[in-house]
Amino acid sequence: MLLSLSTWPEVEAYLRNCDAIVVPIGSTEQHGPNGLIGTDAICAEHVACGVGGRTGVLVAPTISVGMAAHHMAFPGSMSHTPTVLISIVREQVMALAAHGFRSFFFVNGHGGNIATINSAFAEIHALRWQAGLPAIRCQLANWWDPAGVAELSQEYYGDVEGSHATASEIAITRHLFPDHAKNVVLDPAVAPTGEFHDAADFRQRFPDGRIGSNPGLSEAKHGERILQSAIAGLVEMLRVFIAMKGA
C-alpha cells in the first residue's frame, strides 16, 4: 500500500490498526559509466515497496535527493546539504506524526545519508520531547544490511564488489530496468580504491566515478536475487521494530 496511491479515508482507516510507515530514502548521483544516476533512490524505493507489500505496512514517497556533495564534480548529480536533508526528514516525519504515525522505518540506499539521517532522528526526538508530543520511533535500515545480501555479493563479485557504483546495486537496476542497462567498456575493469576529501578530489582520484568496483560483472539475474534477499531481510527487521513497541 503506497501513501501516494491512497485516499485520506484509507489512511485514516489504516491508522486505526497500525501507526508504522516505511520511508525510502536514496540519492541522485553518478554511479560510474554504466550505473544509473538514480540507482540509490531506485534501490531504496523497490526494497521499501517489497517490504510494504509483504507486511501490509504503508510506504511513503521516496526521498530521492540525499547528501551527495562529494559527487558534484560529475554531471547530473544532485545534493542537499546535511542541514537541508535533516530539515526534510524532520518535516516529513513531523507532518506524518501529526496524523498519528508513530513508527518510522527508513529504508536507505545511500551510505552518504547515514550520518545525516541519524542526526535528523536526534533532532526529531529532541523537538518531540521539548514540545511534549507523543513518542515517535525511528529506525534506519540500509538495504544492504541483511546477511543474505552480503553473502550473495561475495558469491557473485568477491573482492570487486567495491564501495561505490557497486556491482550489487548496478545488478539490481539491471534487473528492474533492463531496457536502460548500459553496456560500456570499463577501463580499468576494477576501479581503484582509496580515500577522498571533496568533490574535486573524488573526480581526480576516481575519474570514472567508481571506487573499488567492477560492475561489468553485474547481471540482471544477480540483481533479482539480491533484491529479494534485501526485501526478506528488511521484512524481518521491520517486524522486530514494530514488535518492540509493545515490549
Report the helical percentage. Answer: 40-55%
| Strand content bin | 5-15%
Total domains: 1
**What is the structural class?**
alpha/beta
Low-confidence stretches: none
Distance between the termini: 26 Å
CATH superfamily: Creatininase
CATH fold descriptor: Rossmann fold
The side-by-side strand order for the widest beta sheet comes to 2-1-3-4
Rg measurement, Å: 18 Å
Number of strands: 4
Total helical segments? 8
The gross shape turns out to be globular
Task: Identify the notable features of this structure and list them briefly.
single chain, 247 residues, alpha/beta, Rossmann fold, four-stranded parallel β-sheet, 8 helices, 45% helix, globular
Structure description:
- The chain is an alpha/beta fold.
- It has helices at 8-15, 39-55, 82-97, 114-131, 147-157, 167-176, 199-205, 220-244; strands spanning 20-25, 58-59, 103-108, 137-142.
- The chain contains eight helices and four strands, in the order H-E-H-E-H-E-H-E-H-H-H-H.
- The longest helix has 25 residues, at 220-244.
- The chain starts with 7 loop residues before the first helix and ends with a helix.
- The mean pLDDT is 97.
In short:
This protein has 247 residues and is α/β, with parallel strands linked by helices. The protein is built from eight helices and four strands.
